[in-house]
Amino acid sequence: MKQEKQVEILKELMRQVDEGKNIDAGVQYKMPTSAYACPEIAAKEWDLLFQNHPQLIGLSGDLAEPGSFLTIDDFGTPVLATRDRDGVFHAFLNACRHRGVRVAQDTRGRKNVFTCPFHAWSYSNKGDLVAIPDEDHFGPVDKSCNGLIELPAVERDGLLWVHPQPDGRLDIDELLGETLAKELASYNLGDLAHGGVKTINMNLNWKLANDTFGETYHFAKLHKNTLAKIIPGNTLHLEEFGRHHRFVTAAASLQDYKQVPEDEWDIHVGSAFILYYLFPNITLIAGKDNCTIVKMYPDPDNAGRSTSQVFAYYSQEIIDMEKAAREAGTLQEVNADTAYDPDNRSIPTLAATMEVFTSTIEQEDYLMGEFQQKTAQNGLLEFVTFGRNEPPLHHFHKTFREVLGLSPLEKIT
To answer: Is 60 exposed, middle or buried (0-12, 13-18, 19+ CB in 10 A)?
Structure first.
């Protein structure tokens, strides 16, 4: 992120802290609760936002070296993603061309050849059909046109994108826009290594899961014994990038920055987090040497259930520091988002990151979401309200309703 943009954001957050006022969108909206419970809306979302929309499947570090692979089965198309011996990223339908059995069963690993467990047809990590056992018994097969079905796949600035349909359009410049694409590129996400993943399955609509990451109004109330101990909340800077947005909130130490020259300001120090919402279902929290990605998926058979997958990524320096501190027996875990080494430098460890998503997101935010889901399914509460201090929620719900052809949010002030 450019220095002038960092200063602009931090100055606005300082103003909010000084005045004791959060962001003000100048308008409130109400939205039908049917958005969270209607089977017809859910079916349209599954078709337009997941089966027929580009999907971010991870970072380059998920396929760290030639021969790496991962499988994804979250948005209706079973995907096999590979990095071939030349380092090129590919994505395929994870289905044998013989009888449709998945050729890769594991979530991730290293393989150069994928063999179907049913009849042992084998494919290279470039998707080529390379072997058919007892081919003289089976009959002639043109291997040149019976490789794995390839899906559009693009690796850009450390982000791995796949379209679920073989004929789908995947234009990253069009998808993100120039400004957001350049900003995401500035984080050097391609240098980060995969650290681990946490899966949360709960009884709430995927949009309620997304709403968790749409405001800071609730921090001091719902999270008073967890997140609020390290993040004051009730501050918010928002910038929209078409269907996407960036959302930043103040760190407890922000006021100390008034004594630091502006050309030395670092948004990673002055803010509690920098969160990017990438349409339709991605929350990307960018750190200086780490990144957390939350992918929220609907249950295609139940509008009242969803799965959130939390992926943590770290720089090699952070990985090495944590390893050294653990081996020395000096690493002190804390119930926040960091641990500390002997020099008191913060280390964003996997255990600490996942603790936040367990104690705060799963056990507090998503628990509230389950209560909201029951209300939406009951149908007696016809509308919910989004306040003037919740513009990320305005933006998200306006956008998905527009894409689905639903009625716009209704202004109430």
So the answer is: buried
Enumerate residues 6+ apart whose C-beta is below 8 A from 347: 318, 321, 322, 325, 331, 338, 339, 340, 341
Is 39 in a helix, a strand, or coil? helix
CATH superfamily name and code, 55-162? Rieske [2Fe-2S] iron-sulphur domain (2.102.10.10)
CA gap 230, 253 in Å, rounded:
10
Report the amino acid identity of residue 146: N
Query: What backbone torsions phi and psi does residue 307 show, to the nearest 5 degrees?
Result: -125, 130
Which of 262-266, 349-353, 354-358, 379-383 holds the top average pLDDT?
379-383
Beta-bridged to residue 129, according to DSSP, are 123
Q: Do the Cβ atoms of 108 and 70 come closer than 8 Å?
A: yes
The 3-state DSSP class for residue 18 equals helix
pTM over 0.85: yes
Percentage of the chain surpassing pLDDT 70?
Answer: 95
CB 131 within 8 A of CB 91: no
Question: Which helix H or strand E contains 339, and what residues bound it?
Answer: strand 339-340
Q: Which amino acid would we find at residue 28?
A: Q
CB neighbours of residue 123 within 10 Å: 26
Mean pLDDT of 303-327: 88
Predicted confidence (pLDDT) per residue in 217-260, tens digit: 988 888 888 887 778 888 999 999 999 999 999 998 888 888 89
Give the pLDDT of residue 330: 65
- Assign domain 3-52+172-411 one CATH number from 3.40.50.970, 3.40.50.280, 3.40.50.300, 3.90.380.10: 3.90.380.10
Please classify residue 391 by burial: count the beta carbons closer than 10 Å to its beta carbon, then call 0-12 exposed, 13-18 middle and 19+ buried: buried
- The whole-angstrom separation of Cα 291 and Cα 265 is 20
Confirm if 5 and 186 have CB atoms less than 8 A apart.
Answer: no
| Both structure tokens of 179 | 């400004």
